[in-house]
Amino acid sequence: MHEKIKFYKYQGAGNDFILIDNRQHVFEPQNSALVKKMCDRKFGIGADGLMLLQETDEADFEMIYFNANGLQASMCGNGGRCIVAFARDLKIIEHRTDFLAVDGLHFAQIKGNEVALSMIDVLEYRRDSDAYILQTGSPHYVKITTDVENLDVYNAGRKIRYSQTYSPEGINVNFVEQEQAGYFVRTYERGVENETLACGTGATAAAISIAINENRTGTIEIPIRVLGGQLQVSFERDENSFTKVILQGPAEYVFEGTY
After folding, report:
1. Exposed site from 19, 82, 90, 239, fewest CB < 10 Å?
2. What is the pLDDT of residues 11-52, one digit of tens each?
3. Are 105 and 174 found together in one domain?
4. Does residue 164 share a domain with residue 218?
């Protein structure tokens, strides 16, 4: 008889995650195959990633994040917002929290069905031809272009992710287009190895790249539309440092069960 694992499913703008309350260490994935199978949309629960909520002395809780490929991963912005909603539903927090993730401490605030999450400061970026390369908790390649709606994001993104420049670690690839109410972003995510409906660190990287591209300074707020909904990114820019970076958007409970 295999052990049963209680899980919860949450989504943030279509980025969906399996969440496990691991304060009692009920789940210790000894190999990546189990996490990969749980995230599989045909043979498992189905998700872009899996998160463990654990106890820590440094903050309200700790977030341990695994990509859909089963490997422990860099920061996930939408995952961070979902785990905050999960912590509220578990009654660990009310409306505000500090939690620990792989890239350090994050502050978050719950505003209705949305979560506003602090992201790391971005103090440098570089160019790769006409794209911007920056680290927003995960490494991102951002290309500002046109007709993103009809772009073959899977193949275009995959080609860059597996290129000689970025292999073997890979990079997340974002295509950005200006539209009336803001900007439209589509992302190929490494680890998922496919396009996702949203990427929080990608939306953040896109917003910062837009500010650089348009030479905006001061307090900046940029609406980002993704396939799964609407996100908002705000930050302060002083020359080439981007601080007080906040990613805001929906984070919603979907269902729960045992695996």
Report:
1. 239
2. 999 999 999 999 999 998 778 999 999 999 999 999 999 999
3. no
4. yes
